[in-house]
Write a structure and sequence with these properties.
Length: 293
């Protein structure tokens, strides 16, 4: 076994696929390939996976990811058709229009997840700026970047989790979580910068994050109501949904939660106006224009 190998844990029945991040003589530090999970395990408890797509865990996740992608693309197609129909009704003719989706700032505590997230933003044509930064540095970075980039949506995510052997009665304590306090601090700074929850949409949290604390700090959407593992792309899906929901409408809560891979135990939130705008007429290539001045 070596650093970079794909492995599963025997004691957990191979439920999650990991990549070995750090390896010493007896213990391995693991990063989930699909879920925002950072874990450690005895090397003797690990099995190297040669064909990850053949594992039950990977197959199940892939089905959910494909369904989520299908739903996103379907919603985009419906939006295009709806816009064309509305403009045709208003102008009595077919007019080419242009789209202004909400701009996203994405801060991620995991470099690999950030790359996957940026690929999805690009695929869905969402203007996004992504940075890989340690969770502890996020509050400072939020304070510096918001005035510079002026995003419509900010995603604050990375790694989190409930500490081992935390008793049930301590689950509401922020000190029982690996990075929830860092996320909450970043959310508070973002909300101080823009107090209106419709002015700046905040999507925050990772696996097992303190959902209630994140909402109380000012997030619009957060993980994880059921303290479950969330998929790496769930925060991205929520951000894309907000980016492509009209400023005249609220983001459909049931729709966005159902569309995530983790579902209602993984992500929740509050009613929030979208950030998508339509413009008319579409800018033209100005050729053959004669100056008059």
């Amino acid at each position: 076994m070596k650093q970079g190998d794909l492995v599963v844990r025997k004691s957990y029945g191979g439920d999650v696929l990991f990549r070995v991040a750090i390896l010493d003589s007896e213990i391995a530090i693991l990063k989930g390939t699909d879920y925002r999970l950072l874990a450690d395990a005895p090397i003797r408890d690990l099995t190297v996976v040669s064909h990850p797509e053949s594992t039950g865990a990977a197959k199940e996740v892939r089905v959910k990811v494909n369904e989520s992608m299908r739903r996103m693309k379907e919603q985009r197609e419906k939006l295009v058709i709806h816009n064309a129909s509305e403009l045709r009704r208003a102008t009595n003719e077919s007019q080419p229009y242009f789209e202004v989706p909400g701009k996203v700032l994405h801060l991620d505590g995991d470099g690999n997840y950030m790359k996957k997230s940026m690929q999805l933003y690009t695929q869905m044509k969402v203007p996004a700026h992504g940075l890989h930064v340690h969770e502890s540095q996020m509050p400072e970075l939020v304070q510096r970047l918001l005035p510079q980039l002026n995003p419509d949506v900010i995603v604050i995510t990375g790694h989190d989790g409930v500490f081992k052997n935390t008793p049930q009665h301590e689950l509401m304590s922020i000190n029982s979580y690996k990075n929830s306090q860092n996320f909450c601090n970043a959310v508070r700074i973002a909300r101080e910068y823009e107090k209106s929850r419709d002015g700046l949409i905040i999507v925050a949290g990772a696996c097992q994050s303190h959902y209630e604390a994140l909402l109380q700090s000012g997030a619009n959407f957060a993980s994880s109501p059921g303290r479950i593992l969330i998929h790496a792309l769930d925060p991205v899906y929520v951000a894309i949904k907000a980016s492509y929901t009209s400023i005249r409408e609220t983001v459909n809560l049931a729709d966005v939660i159902h569309g995530t891979i983790s579902g209602i135990d993984g992500v929740g939130g509050i009613e929030t106006l979208g950030k998508y705008r339509v413009g008319l007429p579409k800018p033209k290539t100005l050729t053959g224009i004669k100056p008059t001045v």
